[in-house]
Amino acid sequence: MTKSVPVGIPPTAPVGTVADPGAGRPSRRKLATLNAVSGALLPLVKRIPEPVKRKLLGRRAVTIDGNTLDPTLALVLAMQRASGVNGLVASDDVVVSREQLRNLSAKIDSGVTVGIRELTVPGPEGQMRARHYTPVDGLPAGSPLLVFFHGGGFVVGDLDTHDGLCRLISRDAGVGVLSVDYRLAPEHKAPAAVHDCYAAYRWAVDNAAALGADPRRIAVGGDSAGGNLAAVVSRLARDDRDQGVPLPALQLLLYPATNFAGDTRSKLLFSEGFFLTKPHMDWFRDNYLSGAAVDVSDPLISPLLADDLTGLPPALVLTAGFDPLRDEGHHYAEALAAAGVPVDYREYGSVVHAFANFFPLGGGSAVATADMVSALKAHLSRC
Asked: Where is this region: Disordered (predicted)?
């Protein structure tokens, strides 16, 4: 297993805490006002010089576990806290939280131009939306393809919230990307998302030629919940190899959730104030698993708890220094390596959970995301 040196970014200021998703959340009217304000302010963040950011923040840098928080992200978090929308979950109302995340994502324009096709993919319970990305100049037949599963705690997120990231991956890694709009909780409890994502991977394999891909060069990947799904899909494909299902060429696990059953030091250190919080994680877990046919110890939910991790695809595992999920991502990388799986593990020390969605704002998120895409390109060029 390889491990990179964390990306170093200049120091910044502390940020505040986030309340329980069920308490004190803004109304729809207030969210509309906040969306308008964030739409005006977020595009300006990238243009603010680092010394000015630190002056605006007005406090000492935040350093935890030897990592110093990126000032660009600190400013974004401070803006959110001041506006009354703290972190990833805007409301305990699922519809409102989904809308808020879509609005936030729309304000952070990637400015990346690629070719796009809107598709439908057959799933276990009907058709799923999907979006196929290619570089503007196209790709030769038999190119690599990344089947991408978006993050959002299995509850929020969609094709649009991760559109900018998929555009960047396609353009800068020079690969096709198939982003999948799998079913979300609480309307569809676990393991519905797993079944959808596995069906999408198998469809991509069967239709590789139409996607300009070689079926032997199809990778799976995702961020957060999507990283969890990519890990599980990789194991399901391994278990079905005797049925002719090829193993993914690579699993891209971007700050993945790998163990719903245990606590870690990073969950305690970063339980509040760094975009993803413990109340958020509890809310996601309850929406995904309450009343489900599986529980937290099932490897369909917690891939780290699988009895056998041998024979899985090579893994590119990426974590963030200020992320509650940091340690379980690291533990999964270690477990894969111990099982003989080739692992490239990288921790980006200065950034928070979901940093890859913030790359258009510059700073540590842009540096870390560029390194991730470069690593992905290198790995896929060898498959």
From this structure: 1-26
